[in-house]
Design a protein that fits this description.
Layout (H helix, E strand, L loop, with lengths): L13 E7 L3 E7 L9 E10 L2 E2 L3 E3 L5 E5 L8 E8 L21 E3 L3 E5 L5 E5 L14 E6 L8 E4 L3 E6 L3 E6 L14 E6 L8 E4 L3 E5 L5 E5 L14 E6 L6 E6 L3 E6 L4 E5 L14 E6 L8 E4 L3 E6 L3 E6 L14 E6 L6 E6 L3 E6 L4 E5 L20 E2 L8 E4 L3 E6 L2 E6 L14 E6 L4
Antiparallel strand pairs: 1-2, 2-6, 3-4, 3-5, 3-7, 8-9, 9-10, 10-11, 12-13, 13-14, 14-15, 16-17, 17-18, 18-19, 20-21, 21-22, 22-23, 24-25, 25-26, 26-27, 28-29, 29-30, 30-31, 32-33, 33-34, 34-35
């Protein structure tokens, strides 16, 4: 016999596990047990800070793992879930989930160098150091981590092509390495082998480096960029380089930002996306291959929680931890089972539950709520981490060998890294020691970074 609608709430969902990412959390649950009066059609997840409820997030889906975006890094959250049936009636609320604290990624990978935030907010780097991108005052490569001079209290890290930047000291940004077009942001074009302060940046919550430009998300979700701008990747309506930060036109409420080779993208409040810069392969996602020096909307992208840009392709995490990609697909880096470029987003085959997404040169890797990783695209140096070096396209995700409890990940041009249980492991190309294992030998499976 059916319960009278509106009199007694159906049983609650059974809360499962919450897993934190960068400004987001993956929340999993089980559908309510027993016979519900009506079939559930959607779920609502309510974040809590302590006992204070935050804005509830509605998911028009029956998937029982969802990504809650727009969370503040460094703040602890718990979650409750309730379902809604076809008549709009609610179930009871679930119990409270475990507590999680979103944080910016603690590792970063550039073209051929890698960096990690370590104890006390210090930073260590390893790999290519031709322009001082390891930050230790030298230009000598290192196949094991070296300490960056003068950085403490770092909360976010990024590695560009041949430069590195960190957020520290209440939202100030410092950069080091190559500076030929102003990508260090200190109003010069002089390389620096130790950190220099970016001019006029305060209140930064994250920083992201491209081939020769850098961007930071600052107060109110505004975005500022500096460095190379030949294709409009600074987003200020011009194509002139800038050695000091400029504001991206019309971007407010950004919850995530990423710099690719010569492109930049942001996720905005509400889950839409905008991109600007190079669009030769459709990596702006607006259905064209025309460059743009101001932000354009990514066609059909809704519910986005995170975004990453590679050499000439872009990917985003959307509702349910599904990943969608667009742009160059020569090596299958869009992950949809084809090698056909796409100027609008396509879904990565068979992938759900992603909590982080990282694009390398011509490949991509997703970190899953389970702690595992899946990668797809170019594998010529073993950068997919599955024990092979397949030169042909790899257009669907494969599992990275032995990665089962990762909490952060990063991808460089031809290699990847993951952090978990106090270890950093890397795989792929290692010509400059970017895998950090004391050698310059490539590895198609993860090896442990020495000395962190």
């Amino acid at each position: 016999m059916l319960a009278l609608s509106g009199c007694v709430a159906d049983p609650p969902p059974v809360i499962g596990l919450a897993v934190a990412g960068d400004g987001l959390a993956a929340v999993s649950w089980q559908a309510p047990p027993g016979d519900n009066a009506f079939v559930l059609t959607s779920y609502v997840v309510t974040p809590y800070v302590g006992s204070v409820a935050q804005a509830p997030v509605a998911f028009n889906s029956t998937a029982t793992t969802q990504i809650v975006a727009g969370l503040t890094n460094g703040v602890a959250y718990t979650f409750q879930v309730h379902g809604i049936n076809a008549l709009g009636n609610d179930t009871a609320r679930s119990a409270t989930s475990n507590s999680v604290t979103p944080l910016a990624p603690s590792i970063a990978a550039g073209f051929a160098h890698t960096c990690a935030i370590v104890s006390g907010g210090a930073v260590k780097c390893w790999g290519d150091n031709a322009f001082g991108q390891l930050g230790d005052g030298t230009t000598t490569d290192s196949s094991t981590p070296v300490a960056v001079t003068g950085i403490t209290g770092a909360t976010a890290i990024t590695a560009g092509h041949e430069h590195t930047c960190a957020v520290a000291g209440g939202g100030a940004v410092s950069c080091w390495g190559r500076n030929n077009v102003g990508q260090l942001g200190d109003s010069t074009a002089t390389d620096a082998t130790t950190p220099v302060a970016v001019t006029g940046i305060t209140g930064a919550t994250n920083v992201t480096g491209g081939q020769n430009h850098t961007c930071a998300r600052v107060a109110a979700g505004n975005v500022k960029c500096w460095g190379g701008n030949a294709l409009g990747q600074l987003g200020n309506g011009a194509t002139l380089n800038s050695s000091t930060p400029v504001s991206v036109s019309g971007i407010t409420g950004a919850t995530a930002v990423t710099a690719g080779s010569r492109v930049t993208c942001a996720v905005l409040t509400g889950g839409t996306g905008k991109c600007w810069g190079d669009n030769g392969f459709g990596q702006l996602g607006n259905g064209t291959t025309t460059n743009s020096s101001t932000p354009v909307s990514v066609s059909g992208l809704t519910g986005a929680a995170a975004v990453t840009a590679g050499h000439s392709h872009t990917c985003a995490i959307v509702v349910g931890g599904v990943v969608r990609c667009w742009g160059n697909n020569l090596y299958g880096q869009l992950g949809n089972g084809t090698t056909t470029d796409s100027t609008t987003p396509v879904s990565v085959s068979g992938l759900t539950g992603a909590t982080a997404i990282n694009n390398g040169g011509a490949f991509a890797c997703a970190l899953l709520a389970s702690g595992g990783m899946r990668c797809w695209g170019d594998n010529s140096f073993g950068q997919l981490g599955n024990g092979t070096t397949t030169v042909s396209p790899n257009p669907t995700p494969v599992a990275v060998v032995g990665i089962t409890n990762a909490t952060a990940a990063a991808t460089g041009e031809y290699y990847g890294c993951a952090e978990g249980s106090g270890l950093v492991e890397c795989w792929g190309y290692n010509n400059n020691g970017q895998l950090g294992d004391g050698t310059t030998t490539d590895s198609a499976i993860p090896v442990t970074v020495i000395g962190l």
